[in-house]
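Q: What would this chain look like folded?
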Amino acid sequence: MSELKNVTIVGSGTTRRITLERQLEAPIEKVWQAITSIDALKQWWVDWQDGGKIEQEEGGRIILGDGSWINGSIKIWAPPHVFSFTWHESLADPQNTIGYDEKTKGLLRIDLIEANADQTFLTLIQFLPAADTVGGAAGWHYFGEILFSYLKGEKITYRTDRFEELKSLYAR
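A: My prediction, written as structure tokens:
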């Protein structure tokens, strides 16, 4: 097991589990909106491209940007507590995406628990191929940082150097 700040990596062999845990200074409804609304996501999630949709129901489609990054389906839609979806469901042949299991295709789950009226505890879990672990851990770590900034009302600027710094830390 490897741990750095709020991302934990567990596993050996071909698959790893990445877990991000973060205490957020915001009401649960505001956090839910930030992670499930296309309009909100466009304001803070990195490298956004035009387009995207989230069909807010189990079985609905989730497409972020032009669909080349996230193009899957919603597995659990339980506002404001659980949001789970597949990452790469639209791939014509998931075997060409080394390490992604046919059943999960990058399954991701986000759980929100209300700590009190102004604090929410977020847990994000994703199973990834071992080869994608460093980038995945760095990416979700950075996701947590920019979500925190967005919820505080700060200006969001994507910093490639910050992502590369995190990748370097997780590679150790």
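The two ends are 12 Å apart (CA to CA).
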